[in-house]
Amino acid sequence: MSFSYLKPGESAVFKDRHTTKVNECVQPFVEGNSGDIGLIGLPSSKSSISLSRAAEAPATIRSALASYSTYSGEQERDFAEKKILDFGDVPIHPTSIEESLERMRISIEEMLEKEACDRYIMLGGDHGISFPSISAFKEHYGRVGIIQWDAHHDLRNLEDGGRTNGTPFRSLLEAGIIKGEDLVQVGIRDFSNAKAYHDYAREQGIKVYTMDDIDQYGLNRIISEQLTRLSQQVDMIYLSVDMDAVDQAFAPGCPAIGPGGLTSRELLSSVRLAAQHEKVKAMDIVEIDPSKDVRDITSRLAAHVMLRFIF
Predict the structure, then answer these.
(1) Rounded to the nearest 5°, which phi and psi values hold at 145?
(2) Which of 129, 143, 151, 274 has the highest CB neighbour count under 10 A?
(3) What's the confidence (pLDDT) of residue 1?
(4) With 90 as the cut, is the pLDDT of residue 232 above it?
């Protein structure tokens, strides 16, 4: 026999010699390696206040990268040379939320100490992962500014349920890790929050932009203005993308879906605009429940968000 089609341990995946898929740019981190983007999974969803299997999202988002090529026709450039170093997934404690949060903080700090990459992506998980993640970036970089795409404030009180996916930014504020004036929330949706948390946001000096504001002023204009403002007062800017900021028609796989949100194009365009700023060093993507998704629509959108950040 001159040729064998047997491929032990490999999948039968079609390969076009002229096409590089994004997943081919991903390689496991090895001590001493350097790359463009550091990637880490934070598969935690036990702190979700609604039933969620968001812990499964890092795997589905990584898998979705195989659906996209490295070539941008809009930019007329192939990014096949980009190197994404995968630091794997943090092992989550089976019962303790506080222990899981600490493990995530320690793991991100360890990743940053390697100084192997210029920028980083954290894949959640529910939005509770932003608390340990931003805490770690604060220790490494200094003062952190945040742009948060979200339908919700995530400023819930800690008395009713401890640290949950509804409390990350309240936790960061009360711990003195961030300042209210350094937090920008875009996409806040009607009938999705309590008055007490809207009032708390105002008291803390948080910049809040509702969907009505976006309709009136334009999302990219808001992002551009806030990038300029934040860059004058912080050491780095962190993007936190809660996928439920997107309308349920475009992101059906979120635990808290709803109408009246952003289009997928609005999300992708605004993330790309933000990612071009030199002070933007990190992004998390949270609140995807693959068990609720339809044909991986939401995970594929999240993968596309990654591309807008990376390329």
Answers:
(1) -100, 150
(2) 129
(3) 54
(4) yes
